[in-house]
Structure formats: structure tokens, C-alpha cells
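C-alpha cells for Protein containing YHS domain protein. Go.
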Amino acid sequence: MGVIGSSEENAKGRDKAERIGREIAKRKCALLTGGCTGLPYAAVEGAKDEGGTTMGVSPASSRKEHREKYRYPVEDHDVLIFTGAGYKGRNVVLVRSCDAVIATSGRMGTLNELTIAYGEMRVMGLLKGVPGASDEFEKLAEKLGRPGREIVAHEDPEKLVEGVFEKLERA
């Protein structure tokens, strides 16, 4: 299960992202992120609090580049995959490695990940009530998209994760 969203350290919704990570770990599902800071990392911390497995898919080509160029953490990831593909290339690898993605806020990078997930017919969870891509994507998909995509949107992290897993079970 992927968690995507704002990599800004002070992004709103940190507590909700941690709760999402905890819920994913409680279901014995590995948590994948872009290996970044901010809300995806908060989800990693939540998953680790529950004894979960976490994987980071990095835009960097090495641990050194991951730390120095991107200024991303290596702590709390059980596995780091170095794509060497930059942000957009990393996004494709991340999303295609997940059965579902849950978006927590975010801007253009998150929007890119969501459009990849949409095109790949992944189940998508959108955390509502936080500013950014996760709060806007459902409207955009209705306006520009095709029917038949599996989108769950909710303000409550536990209910959001539950809805995503229910959609996955039916898929």
C-alpha cells in the first residue's frame, strides 16, 4: 500500500498521516512511500510504531545521493530502492509497485502520482480536509476522467484505510 503526499516538514495533516500508517501496519500490509520527508514519512513513523514493514522508493541512485541531494531520511525504512530516475521516474515505479495508494495533501508531485494511479487503474484513497491534491483530485477526476476508477475519499484516516482495503478485496 502506497502513501503519497506533501513532503513538506510542516504540512498540515501529520497526525492523520501517522494514523494512516498505523492502520496499514495493523493490516499486516507493507507501506511504500517515495522515501521522502513530510506526510509520507509521518505514515512511515506510524507504521513503525505498529511494527510494520516500510519501503522507500527513492528518486536517487544511491544512499549518499538520497541523503545529500534530496535530503531524504534513511531511518525507519526497512528497504530503500534507489531508482536513479528522478522524481517523475520514481513516481511511476512507486505507484506501479502498489495495489493502492493513499494521498495525504500534496501538490504537483502528488498530482502526478495520482494521475499515474488513475491511469494504472489502482485503488486510490484521498484524505479529505487537508489542503492540496488529495482534497482536489476527486473533482478533477470527475471532470476529466473516465468512469470505473476506484476512488475512496474520507476525512477520517481509519475509515479511509478501511474503505481502500474493502475496494481491494472486491477488485
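The mean pLDDT is 95.
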